[in-house]
Amino acid sequence: MAPTAYTIFTLRAIRPSVRQKLEEDRRSIGSSREADSAGHILPPNRIASALRGLRWKDVENIRTLCDMPQFKEYRNLHIIEQLKSRSVFFDKGLTDNEIENIQKRFEIQFPPDLLEFLSTALPISNGFINWRNSSIENINVIKDKLKLPLEGILFDIEHNSFWFEGWGSKPNNLLESLEICKEKMNQAPQLIPIYFHRFIPQNPFERNNPIFSVHQTDIIYYGENLFNYLEIEFGIKGYKDIDFESIKTIPFWTDIVG
């Protein structure tokens, strides 16, 4: 991508001293983390302080900058700091081995921004999915969560006369209707639970997939992307701040949003 005048202006606006300070902070992240009395990892406050001097919306629109590992790391640390201030507790981030085992166990694939967030720190407050807990009970809880969107739609087909027009004409036979739903849903992107009944699609496998609030067929958007959603969920921003026109189209789920 050839640099535009806007790109050059933004690059120049970030003074060398600031870039140097951010790079020093990035390198020190691993050694400067502290833990609270409950053993939850606390990202360094000075990382969030460094972020306040940057226009993140501008930076993230520049591919050559937003693809730099340190900026992804700062973005995650910044939202973690914000969530901590809303009493969300965190454990250390998931390791590469843990992520590989989790994705194999549940036959899912975390989209890149969710993977990076969970690798930085794992939210363990009530309502969040504790991906690290490998007890049989918790594994079953997560499996049930993964099935929830399909089961909710099946329930509404059986009990509330729901039918999605994109599936064609609704059969008169209930069992046939349910089988068509299951077949069609196998083709839709898998939804991965984040917090209570908020989900992110795993496909397309890229950043900035929208967040859906799913309760049977009462389905609405709850964020343009993971970070926007977390700000809205925990009162940092309001629902009215969602830029619905910028939301990415997700097969099936976009069409069913109420």
Automatic annotation (TrEMBL):
InterPro entries the UniProt entry points to: Knr4/Smi1-like_sf
SUPFAM superfamilies reported in the protein's UniProt record: SMI1/KNR4-like (SSF160631)
Taxonomy, superkingdom: Bacteria
Protein name listed in UniProt: SMI1/KNR4 family protein SUKH-1
Organism: Cohnella lupini
